């Protein structure tokens, strides 16, 4: 998880909320829409970070299981070698 990317997303969300509020107060639909778009962008950034986190977690699980399988195969090979000797 990139804390820096999460912080950027939070800042973008706040920026969007402020811009939308200003648009609401001034009756400016373009500013409202721009603020909403920034909030959506922030959500996309957060979702992207969530996906990266899940991918990293999955890669770590696969890596650990691969190590376990490799150790099991080595143990079986040792056992087979000892049985032949």
Structural summary, described in words:
The chain is an all-alpha fold and 85 residues long. Helices cover 94% and strands 0% of the residues. The protein starts with a helix and ends with a helix. The model has no long low-confidence stretch (mean pLDDT 95).
How would you sum up this structure in a few lines?
Helices cover 94% and strands 0% of the residues. The protein is an all-alpha fold and 85 residues long.
H-E order: HH
Q: Summarize model confidence as the mean pLDDT.
A: 95
User: What coarse outline follows from CA principal-axis ratios?
Assistant: rod-shaped
Largest sheet: none
Over the alpha carbons, how many angstroms does the gyration radius reach? 26 Å
Pick out the low-confidence regions.
Answer: none
Work out the number of β strands.
0
Secondary-structure class: mainly alpha
Termini Cα gap:
51 Å
Protein name: CsbD family protein
Pfam families: CsbD
Domain CsbD-like: 5-57
Family: Belongs to the UPF0337 (CsbD) family.
């Amino acid at each position: 998880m990139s804390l820096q990317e999460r912080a950027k997303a939070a800042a973008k969300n706040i920026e969007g909320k402020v811009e939308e509020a200003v648009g609401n107060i001034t009756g400016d639909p373009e500013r409202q829409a721009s603020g909403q778009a920034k909030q959506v962008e922030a959500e996309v950034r957060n979702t992207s970070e969530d996906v990266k986190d899940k991918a990293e977690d999955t890669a770590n699980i696969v890596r650990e299981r691969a190590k376990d399988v490799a150790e099991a195969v080595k143990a079986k090979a040792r056992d087979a070698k000892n049985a032949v000797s």
